[in-house]
Design a protein that fits this description.
alpha/beta, six-stranded parallel sheet, Rossmann fold, 385 residues, 42% helix, 16 helices, 2 domains
Length: 385
Amino acid sequence: MRNQNTLLIPGDFPPVVSGISTYYYQIWRLLPQENNYILCPKDPGWEQFDAQAGLQTIRRRIPAGNLIRDKLLKGLLYAFWTLVLDRKYHFRKIHCGQVLSSGFTGWLMNKLFGIPYNIYVYGSETFRFGYSPLFMKYIKTFLSNAEYIVPNSQFTCNEFMALGIPPEKFKIITPGVDTGFFKPAPKDATLVEKYGLSGKTVLLTVARLDERKGHDMMIRAVADLSSQFPDLIYLIVGSGREEERLRQLTSELNVTDHVIFCGYIPDADLPKFYNLCDIFILLNRQTYDDVRLRGDYEGFGIVFLEAAACGKPVVAGDFGGVASAIENRRSGLIIDANDQSAIRQTLVSLIQNPTLREQLGQYGLERARQSFDWQIISREIMKIL
């Protein structure tokens, strides 16, 4: 007999650091814990995290790689462990955090036992797997049989509606932000001294160092603006596969005095970095050069909400789901991230106009508090739990 237990199989989950990981952790920590279980890999640091998180987390050895064979094995192991766990917990619903690997598990449990399932999508899946008719067939099958499909933005929703799936299956639930944790605060004096930021105009990007995040365009913009604004500093928070190339570009353009690579920063310290900046900017775009990730884009952009919750004006590229995260010309500016002239013009206008920065930041702060606090987002999940 089925009871009230549910199972979440997230794409990422802490201690993994990603927007997807943040999404599931922040929502599921606010749900009733006695009935909601989470199946995820034994990622490095999982024991310490689980000991303090207080969640119903079930860890198993599941590969975390991105190779096709890893993904296939991951899907099979998710299905196996869900079958085993269902004998004990008798799940009434399964929440699938990936359209293929855990989507297969949801579909299988539905066919075997009639258990309904939801699939969460973040954008670009049909671009990245569109080369394979077989993968696309599976994607459409898993989505068509789901009770709900949960996109993170209207842009992502449109991507999957193009597959011909009935609109009533879609329920957009955006990411959110902890407005009690991310909030305006004075600049941290220790960090100001460490990075030499006293009297400087500070630009900030918080993101993995991936092609689609647009760090290279920002470095070029800083090189273009450094003579006009000699006190300009660009902080890059994050690490990733593009770091060596970006450091080389910084050296080639002779802006090593203006660009600071801060590396990976723990979540607990991120508010301090957001509050260091005058302008938050992430020039997101679609991936083209990296064959493995071709077609990938920003499905939403939690970092825009985090910056807004700290009262900062934000600037974003005009591709992907950022229009759900930013109200253009109210909480921030959305521009062509491939147009160096537009980037330059936008930065000049913000650097020279503190009043505009204040207006954008204040509106973004109120918007984050009123519409995107995780408490609000979790109530939306409760409706389909």
